[in-house]
Amino acid sequence: MKKKMTTHFLFILLHLLQFFAVRPDDSICLPQKSLTCHNDFSHNITCIWKGSFDSDQRNNACLIYAEMVDRWQKSYKFKYKHSYNASCELQSFDSARPALKKCSLTFNGTFLFFARNGVLMNLSCSSSKQNETIFYKPVCHIKVNPPGKPNVNQTTVTWFTQVKKHMRITDFLSELQWKQKDKSWNDPIVETVKRKCKWECEAQLKPSLLMKDETYEARVRVQAFYNDQSGKWSEWSPTESWVSQVGSPKPAS
């Protein structure tokens, strides 16, 4: 494994020289192609890759090696005592679509990403000719962690946009959904409210949309805004359930 890491490191150094000679405009968010990644704008990047036929062969390990690069410092290893790098092995995660592979790059530290920096990634497979080098800008593909479970006090719902405050992002769009417990989240009658908030959020449920003594469920998700960039929706929070003490009388069974 150490030998593989050394090989990847040397490969990255060669591409760094090419990259800074023909580097794209730092303000441009380049489209993602076969390798799509989102990040928490802190230290974790999760990537999904649509592999080729060769990459699906048994004993063919496909790895991503990544190194953070800075607009002004060119490489973090020149700015700090050590270089910020990470690697992961792509694994199939969907039996219905085995060509899709996924892994997460976790850098040592927290809140390492800035608007100005990027990540140079090299994807390679051990027993095939598959090899890609990608420049990735974290600020262009933010997907923050989901919020915590919302708190419901009759018709008042409160929540925090993140379980722990995000040190880089302060502006969020929140989406609150609630429904009767026996209904599906895909049901068209699911109620939705959106709120722009920073850390603490609150929404009021209309009593006319509730039924007394009925059990309800609520969940929230958030979308981050940073440096004129809007992120992707987070995953949904854990679900909170409660029995409404207000609303229309529950029909007799």
TrEMBL record:
The keyword Disulfide bond applies. Keywords: Disulfide bond, Signal. Pfam families: IL2RB_N1. Residues 34-137 form the Interleukin-2 receptor subunit beta N-terminal domain. Coiled coil: none annotated. The keyword Magnesium does not apply. Residues 1-24 form the signal peptide. PROSITE patterns: HEMATOPO_REC_S_F1. It comes from the Eukaryota. This is Interleukin-2 receptor subunit beta N-terminal domain-containing protein. It comes from Characodon lateralis. The lineage of its organism: Eukaryota, Metazoa, Chordata, Craniata, Vertebrata.
